[in-house]
Design goal:
Length: 173
Amino acid sequence: MSVAPFDNRLRRAVRPLARLPAWLASGLRDRAIGRAIPFVGTAGLAIAELDDDAAVIRLPDRRRVHNHIGGAHAAATALLAETATGLALGWHLPDDAVPLLVRLDVRYVRRAQGELRARAWLDAAAVALLRGEPRGELDVPVEVLDAAGERTVECALRWAWVPRRREAAPPAA
């Protein structure tokens, strides 16, 4: 996607990591996201790609995210889709806005096997809307595939953005 130069809090946070070796940068980036969003860290999600084109997030195949039949737990799968769409949106979100998930519809279509990957993206029209309006809503497309490259869920996620509340000025003395 070709978009005008843009900068925001998320981009500034990950930019310094580009100078580090990939093995170190990826771990630090994942840890930073996990600290900002604790549940993401608990599940052990990992960022595979984050740029203007897409957010690709991995859910490693670990016992702690398995369900009773040995596949990825439904909640972990939904978290994976939510995280990918939230980061795709956040990559283009102005600093004066706050993202809010307003709808998450997940239809499980097959048992997930092995590591899962979610890829979310915004087209140019969505990016223009996000950057041009102080508030709004949009659907963020996402695809969740398992280790065999099979789609395991069909997801529809709708995100809103609203103006960030300004810190209240301290009372006058």
